[in-house]
Amino acid sequence: MFKRNKTEVVGTISNFMAHKDPKPTNSRFQYTEEVRESLGVLGALSVIPLAIKPLFTEKVAFAAEAYPVAGSATAATNAMYDKMLHAFDPLITLVQALAYPVAMVVVLGGALFIMIGNREKGFGMMSGAGLGYALVQMTPLALNILVEAMKAI
Question: What's the pTM?
Answer without folding.
Answer: 0.45
